[in-house]
Amino acid sequence: MRHGIDDLLTLMQVLRDREQGCPWDLQQDWDSIVPHTLEETYEVADAIERRAFDELPGELGDLLFQVVYYAQFGAEEQRFDFADIVDTLTTKMLRRHPHVFPDGTLASRRPPGVSAEEVQTQQVNSRWESLKAEERAERAVERPSVLDDVPRTLPALSRAAKLSKRAARVGFDWPDARGVVAKIREELAEVEEALAAGDQQHAQEEVGDLLFAVTNLARTLNADPEQCLRATNAKFERRFRFVECELSAAQRPLTEASLDEMEAHWQAAKAEEKQSTHS
C-alpha cells in the first residue's frame, strides 16, 4: 500500500497531538523549524549535484515535510492549512502562465498542436516579471521596490545574486563582463589599501564589496554563485584529502609536513584530475 498526501497530513497531526504526539515535534515552532528547512533544501541540491537520484525521493520528502510542518502550525493557529497553500500556489502559477492557461484556469490550457517552442520566450519572461512586480506592489505596505521579497534568510551569495539581478532588470548593470572584472580589480585594490593602512575593519568591509562584485561576475556568466562555490568546495576537499592520503602513506603526520610537501601533493592531485578529465 502506497501512502498519499492525506496520510502525511494525518501523520503530522498525530505528531503534534497534545496527548498522542511526539515530545520533540510538540516543542517545535515557526522559528525552530526554519534551520531544518534550509538544511533540507541544501540536501536536495547536494543530491542533484551528485546525481544521487536514488536518494532524491527521500530528500524531497524531507523538504516536503517542512511544508507540512508549516501548514500544521498555520492550521493550529487558524491562519491557513495545507489546502490553502496548494490553492494559493496553483492560482499564482495559473496567473503567471497566461501563455499556457489563457483564462487563468486549468481548463483553458494551450490546445494540442501548439508546442512550447512556438511561444515567444522573451514575451513569456517579460510577462512573468511584470506579474511578479504587480504581486510585490500589492504586498508592499509603503513604496514598492524591485528588491522587495528577496528573502533575507537566503545564503549571502544567493541573496547578492538575486539583488543584483533585480537591479539589472531595470538597467542598473554593467554593459558586459569586462565591466564587472574591472570592478573586481577596483574592490581588490581597496582591500589591499585597507590592509596596508592596518585597518582590519575597513578591510573586512571591502572584502564584502569584493565578494559582491564576484557574485555579479557569476551572474553575468549565467552561473549560480552558490553552485560555483559548492563545486570549488568539493574540489578543495577532494584535493586536500589526496594530500592527507599521500602524507599518511609516507607516514608523515600533517602537523609535521612542510608547506612545500603539502603543496607538492596538492599539485599532484591537480595533475591527476587534469589527466583523468582528458583521458
From TrEMBL:
The keyword ATP-binding does not apply. Pfam families: MazG. Residues 118-128 have a biased composition (Polar residues). It is an enzyme of class 3 (hydrolase). GO terms for molecular function: ATP diphosphatase activity. GO terms for biological process: dATP catabolic process; dGTP catabolic process; dTTP catabolic process; dUTP catabolic process; response to stress; TTP catabolic process; UTP catabolic process. SUPFAM superfamilies: all-alpha NTP pyrophosphatases (SSF101386). It comes from the Bacteria. It catalyses: ATP + H2O = AMP + diphosphate + H(+). Keywords: Hydrolase. Residues 102-131 are annotated as: Disordered. The keyword Cell division does not apply. Residues 30-101, 181-239 form the NTP pyrophosphohydrolase MazG-like domain. Its EC number is 3.6.1.8. Belongs to the nucleoside triphosphate pyrophosphohydrolase family. PANTHER family: NUCLEOSIDE TRIPHOSPHATE PYROPHOSPHOHYDROLASE. NCBIfam families: mazG, PRK09562.1. This is Nucleoside triphosphate pyrophosphohydrolase. It comes from Vreelandella sedimenti. The lineage of its organism: Bacteria, Pseudomonadati, Pseudomonadota, Gammaproteobacteria, Oceanospirillales. The gene is mazG.
